């Protein structure tokens, strides 16, 4: 009802001209709504206005929009810069340009040329096709290998056609090193050559020049990168569970980034090893034979040998020594018949038990010591303890535990400890295990004497025997 009256009453309004004094100072001027372009709006300091006025809100809104757009636009283009697929930190695809060594095939995929149609070359071709690459296999006899290459998803051409400039700037050299010299050197210049070869076992010398360095010397105008030599044809064709690190090395940093992106696209983890001289170590990786297991194997062999010698000595040799000591010159060799069965199997059991105990013993000892120190180090516990109590937990409790264990062994095996009759010339286990703890306790006793203890206490408190004059 009110809206009708307002609308109908609007006809009776006396609209004055802009110059009429009746409109002063509350003049109402209706202007058409027009939003200027972003470039035409000057950004100048304006006087302090009320935050709730329409002029302030409109100007602040335009300023925010303009600054937001300008911050997202790079100079000369309206698109943000993209990250290359071949960068070490990214695996997204990028279109080919003047800075991209990959050529683009008719299907829009990046093209890679593989020299060689052997088992490794075909397996790598299939893996590259699965990674969305256009693979061209350059072969000396394309007709003979065309069927196998086609089954892998690639195309086969002659050697000269595959190395043309318009084919690709990335070439995988998957032929034996002795045939590198037969390649057309002039067609390889300016390309990225990925050497996947390995040395022969009899030539595995890390001080010699690597095959990748020899290829770089043969083609000085190319960018040789050593990679993929730690993979086998089986791993490429069947895949590996989890991830596998693939070393990559080369003198050109950009070429290394390209190959790292390619390795990552194949589903492996590239490891940048730096200069091409590192290829000497990389080519020796396939010849490593359990380098981390050498120490463990040595310890196992020593434990087994000791167990085997002890069992043979106690069960077979000791009885004969006793007979000889009694004047009986006869030797009984019947016990040696079970050396291959009983002694061998028992030695294996003793070795397994000892190694298993050694695996868990450090953890148990660490848990006990960490538990004692951890409880004593709790703020709620250490805050309620005096220095004497804290010192007892951290220092004296360990000695008390050692003395208690030593006393247990001494009293439990006293009869064996004082028995020095060694018919087999071997002390008992109780006599052997008590030596180190007993020596430790004996060496600790002089430190507990009052004269020595007081001197050590003074040293801990900063006492100096030689008087030093203070520097003025």
TrEMBL record:
Name recorded for this polypeptide: Pyrroline-5-carboxylate reductase catalytic N-terminal domain-containing protein
GO cellular component terms, A-Z: endosome; plasma membrane
Top-rank taxon: Eukaryota
Pyrroline-5-carboxylate reductase catalytic N-terminal domain ranges (all copies): 111-198
Alphabetical list of SUPFAM superfamilies matching this protein: NAD(P)-binding Rossmann-fold domains (SSF51735)
GO biological process: copper ion import
GO MF annotation list: cupric reductase (NADH) activity; ferric-chelate reductase (NADPH) activity
Keyword field: Membrane, Oxidoreductase, Transmembrane, Transmembrane helix
Chain intervals with Basic and acidic residues compositional bias: 47-70
Annotated spans, Disordered: 1-106
Membrane-spanning parts: 295-313, 364-385, 397-417, 429-452
Polar residues bias spans: 87-101
Pfam families: F420_oxidored
PANTHER family: DUDULIN-RELATED, F420-DEPENDENT NADP REDUCTASE
């Amino acid at each position: 009802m009110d809206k009708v009256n307002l609308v109908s009453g609007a006809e009776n309004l006396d609209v004055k001209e802009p110059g009429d004094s009746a409109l002063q100072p509350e003049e109402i001027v209706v202007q058409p709504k027009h939003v200027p372009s972003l470039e035409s709006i000057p950004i100048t300091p304006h006087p302090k206005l009320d935050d709730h006025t329409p002029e302030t809100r409109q100007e602040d809104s335009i300023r925010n929009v303009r600054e937001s757009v300008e911050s997202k636009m790079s100079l000369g283009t309206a698109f943000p810069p993209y990250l290359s697929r071949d960068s070490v930190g990214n695996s997204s695809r990028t279109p080919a340009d003047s800075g991209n060594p990959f050529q683009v095939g008719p299907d829009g995929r990046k093209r890679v040329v593989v020299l060689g149609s052997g088992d490794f070359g075909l397996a790598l071709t299939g893996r590259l096709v699965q990674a969305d690459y256009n693979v061209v296999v350059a072969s000396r006899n394309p007709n003979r290998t065309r069927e196998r290459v086609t089954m892998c998803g690639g195309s086969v051409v002659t050697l000269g056609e595959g190395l043309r400039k318009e084919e690709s700037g990335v070439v995988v050299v998957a032929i034996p090193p002795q045939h590198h010299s037969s390649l057309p050197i002039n067609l390889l210049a300016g390309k990225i050559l990925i050497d996947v070869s390995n040395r022969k076992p009899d030539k595995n010398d890390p001080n010699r020049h690597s095959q990748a360095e020899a290829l770089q010397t043969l083609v000085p105008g190319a960018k040789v990168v050593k990679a993929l030599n730690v993979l086998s044809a089986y791993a490429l064709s069947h895949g590996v569970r989890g991830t596998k690190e693939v070393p990559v090395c080369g003198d050109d940093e950009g070429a290394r980034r390209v190959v790292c992106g390619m390795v990552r696209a194949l589903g492996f983890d590239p490891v940048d090893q730096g200069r091409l001289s590192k290829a000497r170590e990389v080519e020796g990786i396939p010849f490593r034979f359990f380098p981390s297991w050498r120490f463990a194997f040595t310890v196992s062999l020593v434990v087994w040998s000791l167990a085997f010698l002890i069992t043979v000595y106690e069960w077979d040799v000791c009885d004969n020594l006793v007979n000889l000591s009694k004047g009986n010159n006869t030797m009984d060799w019947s016990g040696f018949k079970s050396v291959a069965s009983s002694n061998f199997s028992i030695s294996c059991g003793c070795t397994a038990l000892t190694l298993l105990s050694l695996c868990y013993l450090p953890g148990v000892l660490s848990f006990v010591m960490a538990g004692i120190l951890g409880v004593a180090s709790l703020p709620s516990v250490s805050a309620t303890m005096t220095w004497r109590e804290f010192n007892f937990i951290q220092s004296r409790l360990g000695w008390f535990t050692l003395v208690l264990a030593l006393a247990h062994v001494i009293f439990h095996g006293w009869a064996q400890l004082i028995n020095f009759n060694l018919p087999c010339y071997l002390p008992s286990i109780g006599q052997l295990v008590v030596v180190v703890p007993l020596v430790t306790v004996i060496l600790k006793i002089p430190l507990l004497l009052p004269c020595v203890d007081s001197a050590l206490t003074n040293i801990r408190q900063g006492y100096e025997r030689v008087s030093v004059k203070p520097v003025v």
